[in-house]
Design brief:
Four Helix Bundle (Hemerythrin (Met), subunit A); 7 helices; 2 strands; DinB/YfiT-like
């Protein structure tokens, strides 16, 4: 599998620094592979009665948070693929809150959502594994800011790590 160097700070908007920081010096591709199983196991370990729990008014439930992770990963993957292929057009941003509001996951179980996450993550592992080192260094524009493919790959991993930490600290503190 390809080894991807940590992006320089000029390769992404400062908003993403926290996500990239969650990866640290870890092999990001290996982390992405491990997260596919680890995140699913983490969510499965949560008591069923917590999936529809929000820690405060106006906050997402755990199910909604999993949906958000899926939606964001799908957008990040699209950006990575587009920029890796040399796309010059400015790629749009997305309103993550609107995306969560506009989906009705009431008929979906947590298993349905995790199955979607697993499939999406597997496709991203395949995509990333086929990038050349030159492709990971390409820079494009997404959401109004320049960003490299390798920064997006770090964001994919860091985003899941960030939300896993949020779930642990804010949703499971009294469980």
């Amino acid at each position: 599998m390809i080894k991807i160097a940590k992006p320089e700070v000029n390769e992404y908007h400062e908003f993403y620094a926290g996500y990239i920081g969650h990866v640290g010096e870890t092999d990001v591709v290996q982390l992405i592979v491990e997260q596919k199983t680890d995140f699913i196991q983490f969510i499965h370990a949560i008591p069923d009665d917590r999936y529809n729990y929000a820690y405060a008014a106006g906050k997402w439930t755990i199910k909604q948070l999993v949906r958000h992770i899926i939606d964001a990963e799908r957008m990040f993957g699209f950006r990575a693929m587009s920029i890796a292929r040399g796309e010059k057009a400015k790629l749009p941003g997305f309103d993550d809150h609107l995306y969560v509001e506009m989906v009705d996951d009431s008929k979906n179980s947590i298993q349905d959502l995790l199955g979607e996450f697993e499939s999406l993550r597997e496709s991203h592992i395949e995509m990333i594994s086929n990038f050349t080192s030159q492709a990971t260094e390409r820079i494009g524009n997404a959401n109004g800011s320049d960003i490299s493919v390798r920064a997006i790959i770090f964001i994919i991993a860091g985003h899941v790590a960030h939300h896993k930490q949020i779930i642990t600290e804010r949703y499971l503190e009294h469980v």
